[in-house]
Amino acid sequence: MAAFGRGLITVCCASFALGAGGSALAADLSYGFGTAPKATVEDWYLTIGVSGRVEPDYPGSDGYTIRPGVIFSIDKASELNTFRSVDDNPSIALFDTGTFRIGAVGRLDWGRDDSDSDRLTGLGDIGTSVEGGGFTEWYALPWLRLRAELRYGVGGFSGVTGDLAADAIYTMDRWRFAVGPRLSYAGSGYMSTYFGVTPLQSATATLLGNPLPVFNAGGGFDLVGVTGQLTYNFRNGFEAGMFGGYGYLLGDAASSPLTSDSSQFRAGLSLSYTFNIGKAWW
């Protein structure tokens, strides 16, 4: 009887152990098959700002003017330290792995007035254009960013434009320095608008004392150059920057009778502010 009692106790203990183990196993299996806690949803941040830059009056001009610029981006908290070049157009990343990004990009082209230069007399004004498209960005190395933009413009001109850029980046505490080459592409719609001269324009300009030959400008790479920039982060949401760049016109852009100088310089200052806009509703 005593032996039977000891056996019963042993069986009960074993059953309890198996039951507990089974419950733990069931919990592990349940966790593994989709009942794990949800990943933390990051906050999103909006960056807005302005820039003032000195640049040619129009593409190919030897005169310069001051123009305002807009800084705009929306990023997750983990993307706040992502490098942005001063000549990146306003964009939103729709896919981001940390080293590779794809998204939407936009740009305003301010156009050109025939009063900007005696060389443009009789050509008529070019209105403001809105460009929209996409961008892709890749960190080939932690300090080397490659970026490409492709856009389509409507308004003053209709056609494709694009930019290729590479930046070597150096960061020290609150300071960030970057420098790299630039290459831009312009389709025939842009090139014929800004660098071409139609027969009617040629006749009108000649009658107004500005003899210009007919010139057909085709699409292609129109400018190669370099951009350098320095930014300082105040760590209270504000960031200030300064930049300078040089570009040299290529192909029909350089050969156009409207081009006064193939060397194009740019310089400017920027100030932006970043703040939390909360969790995404999408």
Structure description:
There is one protein chain. The protein is of the alpha+beta class and 282 residues long. Helix content is 20%, strand content 48%. It has four helices and eleven strands; from the N terminus they run H-E-E-E-E-E-E-E-E-H-H-E-E-H-E. It has helices at 2-35, 188-195, 199-207, 251-255; strands at 43-56, 64-76, 91-96, 100-109, 129-141, 144-154, 159-172, 175-186, 220-233, 238-249, 263-279. Strand 3 and strand 4 form a beta hairpin. Residues 1-37 have low confidence and may be disordered.
Give a brief rundown of this model.
This protein has 282 residues and is of the alpha+beta class. 20% of the residues lie in helices and 48% in strands.
* Number of helices in the DSSP assignment: 4
Compute the separation of the termini in Å. Answer: 70 Å
Class from helix and strand fractions: alpha+beta
Radius of gyration: 30 Å
| Average pLDDT | 86
Q: Could you name the ranges where pLDDT drops below 50 across 5 or more consecutive residues? A: 1-37
Q: Give the % helix.
A: 10-25%
The protein's oligomeric status is: single chain
Order of helices and strands: HEEEEEEEEHHEEHE
Can you tell me the overall shape?
elongated
Q: How is the biggest beta sheet arranged?
A: 11 strands, mixed, barrel
Q: How are strands sequenced across the largest beta sheet?
A: 1-2-3-4-5-6-7-8-9-10-11
